[in-house]
Write a structure and sequence with these properties.
This protein has 499 residues and is of the alpha+beta class. Helices cover 32% and strands 23% of the residues. Helix 1 (3-28) crosses helix 4, helix 2 (34-45) crosses helix 5 (89-108) and helix 5 (89-108) runs antiparallel to helix 6. The radius of gyration is 27 Å and the shape is globular. Bound molecules: the ligand Nc1nc2c(c(=O)[nH]1)N[C@H]1C(S)=C(S)[C@@H](COP(=O)(O)O)O[C@H]1N2 and molybdenum atom.
Length: 499
């Protein structure tokens, strides 16, 4: 028996099945596409340390690597199914049924799954089985090595495989539209009732390679669990405010944008940002105060958290007291003067100055449930992260890196102590004294601070360290701790060569 031929038959059947499932998902729900659903289920279930390792080593490519791994895994399984099916058809069908069942369960058990989310995987499995059945017939009447076979593989199986790969590729490309971000959707941005003052000129005008004072949207980090980006239309979007409140209600997009808007400059950070890492960005947000929305519902005095959820089932729990303490926590609809982009949560997201994103920045927001920490546990808390996530004071050295020429240069970077403000930044070269750095413009307590220190760099290897204190004088924690469970601590240290 020609094993390669029957393995190809199995893969061909699976490719056509996957293509069919993907196409049905376009009609039903892009997030229910077999590949996306299985990927999302894995994202939701991987042990937190493994997930952290993936983010740390693969960065934002982790999603592509995950999808690639699943495709490879399914290809191997279906190849085996093809080989086994030639001896005993039932075994081949059984493998396909098992893979299909994983897809169905993955799609149907998501917290935000729709009523027909099982359909794409069922159709995909049925198509794969049907194709396999046809191929088994072909293989039976021409067992592999006849004169009209190429490299021992039945021509019809080869053609089926090619068709499957093309169809799956096309389906993936079409639904890829859902994984790829779209540009900002044209919606009108209201004028703020309280605008932010003009942003001062940042140090980037004079210090090359320092992070710009405002992060361009295209450079703003992205962190989320979404393999298929939620597509939300402002025509159908609503925000429900309910839970432990006297007056639960729901508002539409038109009602939200008619409310008074605040415009604020805020730095957003991810708890997974390692010391010196890239998952921090600063921009101008426009939105409605969360406190305005909550007060209208009249929260019960016994409530202590707001569980926000997104259309794709992500949840974050934010202390109610934080949302009501007067800080500029908002339901944001714009970043840097533009409607939110799809990756950053279009049409509306939560932003809570002073808290890491996982406890205060729900994207694709559709619900605020007033509740208690005892009653509702949020997505990342269920996975081992701290219940509370105040941002820790942190410092990043942006420049120099690796190798520079000897002579006059500048050590520069950014520090943030979100909602406490940066008071001081200090830099140490090798084991020398800590020198106080010059601070860039002050954009407020909720915004990062650029800094620089002129340095006459002598030739040789050098170690640069930097640390900040918040505005109250509290120094950044020196002890090195990894990101789990509540954010990294330690000074950023950069090893460079001068010469
Ligand atoms: N719906 C949803 N919102 C989410 C997340 C998510 O996975 N899903 N991740 C949170 C985390 S961990 C962070 S750090 C911020 C990142 O926001 P950004 O991608 O706009 O930078 O979004 C938060 N909001
Ligand atoms: Mo995060």
């Amino acid at each position: 028996m020609n094993r390669t031929g029957s393995a190809v038959a199995g893969i061909a059947a699976a490719a056509l099945g996957a293509a069919a499932g993907q196409l049905v998902a376009l009609l039903v729900n892009p997030a229910a596409a077999p590949l996306v659903a299985v990927g999302t289920a894995i994202v939701d279930r991987v042990p937190t340390p493994l997930k952290e390792w993936a983010v740390a080593t693969l960065g934002t490519a982790d999603k592509a690597v995950l999808i690639g791994t699943i495709v490879l895994g399914v290809a191997v399984l279906s190849g085996i199914a093809g080989v086994l099916a030639v001896r005993r058809a039932g075994v081949g069908y059984g493998v396909f049924a098992a893979v299909g069942l994983v897809g169905v369960l993955a799609a149907a058990t998501r917290p935000a799954s729709g009523p027909l989310d099982w359909l794409p995987s069922i159709v995909g499995t049925a198509v794969a089985m049907g194709v396999l059945r046809l191929e088994l017939r072909w293989l039976a009447d021409r067992p592999g090595q006849g004169p009209d076979t190429r490299r021992g593989i039945d021509r019809r199986v080869l053609l089926t495989g090619a068709a499957g790969v093309v169809a799956a590729g096309a389906a993936a490309a079409v639904s890829g539209g859902t994984a790829e971000p779209t540009a900002s959707t044209p919606v009108a941005i209201p004028t703020p009732a309280t605008p932010a003052p003009a942003l001062p000129a940042g140090l980037e005008a004079t210090v090359p390679d320092v992070s710009p004072l405002r992060t361009p949207i295209e450079d703003f980090y992205r962190i989320d669990t979404a393999l298929a980006l939620p597509r939300v239309s402002t025509d159908t979007w609503t925000l429900q405010v309910d839970g432990m409140v006297a007056e639960p209600y729901k508002i539409t997009w038109a009602e939200l944008v008619a409310m008074p808007m605040i415009e604020r400059d805020i730095t957003l950070t991810c708890v997974s940002n390692p010391i010196g890492g890239p998952y921090c960005g600063s921009t101008r947000f426009l939105g409605v105060r969360v406190a305005d929305l909550l007060r209208r519902a009249q929260p019960n005095a016994a409530a202590d958290q707001v569980l926000s959820s997104s259309v794709d089932g992500f949840t974050a729990s934010t202390p109610l007291a934080v949302l009501l303490d007067g800080r500029d926590a908002m339901i944001a609809i714009a970043m840097d003067g533009q409607p939110l982009t799809q990756v950053h949560g279009f049409p509306a997201r939560l932003v809570t100055p002073g808290l890491y994103g996982y406890v205060g920045a729900t994207k694709w927001l559709n619900r605020l449930k007033v509740s208690t920490f005892a009653a509702d546990e949020a997505y990342w808390t269920q996975r081992g992260w701290s219940e509370l996530g105040p941002v820790k004071t942190a410092t990043r050295i942006d420049t120099p890196q690796e190798r520079i020429a000897p002579g006059k240069t500048v050590i520069a970077g950014v520090s943030w102590a979100t909602h406490r403000g940066v008071g001081k930044v200090e830099v140490q070269v090798d084991n020398g004294p800590w020198a106080v750095a010059q601070l860039g413009p002050d954009v407020g307590l909720d915004y990062w601070r650029q800094w620089y220190l002129p340095w006459d760099a002598p030739a040789g290897p050098h170690r640069l360290s930097a640390r900040a204190s918040d505005a109250s004088g509290l120094p950044q924690i020196a002890e090195v701790q990894d990101v789990l469970p509540d954010g990294a601590t330690g000074y950023h240290v950069v090893e460079i060569t001068v010469g």
